[in-house]
Amino acid sequence: MKLPDQSFQIEKYLHRPDYIRQTGEQVAKDFGMAGEEITLPSDDEKAYDQLSEQIQHILQRLMNENMERLQFLLYRVDLNEKYVFQEAVNNGHVNLFTQVADMILRRELMKVIIRNNLKY
Length: 120
Prior knowledge:
By secondary structure, the chain is mostly helical. It is 74% helix and 0% strand. The chain starts with 5 loop residues before the first helix and ends with a helix.
């Protein structure tokens, strides 16, 4: 089975409340495995932004206090640590934590899309 181009696929689902809700659940699960708590947003329209803000705060704290946990978190989410930081360097005009939070959310959304498409 060939999956469609990821960027197209992700953009298509970014505005679907059911997929964003499931993404939040996936984020909470993966962050929980790393010992970090994520509160699931109650407002579907602001869910992506609220998740991003929570993730940014956690990333900033971990960057300053516990790099090992940050590395484990990136591993748990399935993001290559070197790729994440290289992309951050390449896009220096964007806030590092905002950019990494977006990478995490998009990776978690991709997991949800794949899981939902493989169910049927």
